[in-house]
Amino acid sequence: MEKLYTLMGRDSQGQVPLGYLPTSVVGQLGAMASSVRGNMAIDHKERTVHLFDEPTEAERSKAAAALFAHWRAERAFQLLDGWRDELWPVYGRGGELLYNVERAAIGLIGAMRYGVHMTAYVRSPGDPHGIKIWVPTRSPTKSTFPSMLDNTVAGGLMTGEDPFECIVRESDEEASLPNDLVRSRATLEGEVTFVYITDERAGGETGLIYPEYQWVYDMELPDSVIPQPKDGEVQEFRLCTVQEVQALLASGKFKPNCALIMLDFLIRHGIITNDNEPSYDEIKRRIHRELPFPGPHSQSVFAAGRAH
Known about the structure:
This protein is about 30% helix and about 30% strand. The chain contains 10 helices and 12 strands. Strands 7, 8, 9, 10, 11 and 12 form a 6-stranded mixed β-sheet that branches. The longest helix has 18 residues, at about 55-75.
């Protein structure tokens, strides 16, 4: 924490922590003209930054957009080379939208990130655990975690997007899975929460704080359905035995957050247990970490996504 400042905001209940900023970002903010960054207050003793305190969501979103567009134009942070023109939400304690942030920039303020992950599998009675799992390899040209292994389908939630609709969309875009098939077979199995600290594989600056909340889905596929790459983000899909997946996890081949989702899948399916894994309790704690920031994960905002 000695390398971080807490980003503060204001919701309907008053002041609230929203994210963690590394000292490099705070330094850039301090060197900027207020006409670009907007109103700001830094307390170096308490290590807090008050930013985007405009009275309305539209004004706060506009201020955030202006700041990050300026940093992008100035090439202040390598992370912004991955600009996506997608808006991600920053929420208050009541689940209200405080402001929108460009997807590529949200890591600079360490605010909550929301997404969906789905593991597709087939029945395989001849294998020890009775299933095989579809595992994609990320494209070698991806700006983040190139050539690493992923969950069958995954994606980030844009502002206002329902988790289940996101899974349906990503299933088509990443794996060519038919809409009707996903709607009839994908099941919400829970949530995974964690905090990831970026390294060089993530693309951009290292040491950024990524608190994440992921809705987790499973889908049993018939043998006749084979996922196929579509949008260029996946190089190939492989149908792996559980033993192969475990070996790939142990060797660090999976993208880190996808490894957590896979561990959650193996625990839920009774493959990793308290009897065969000495670190079982610690793994479960790390998969379901208590998050320090507010959002709809504690509200009913995404009730539709939970119901499927």
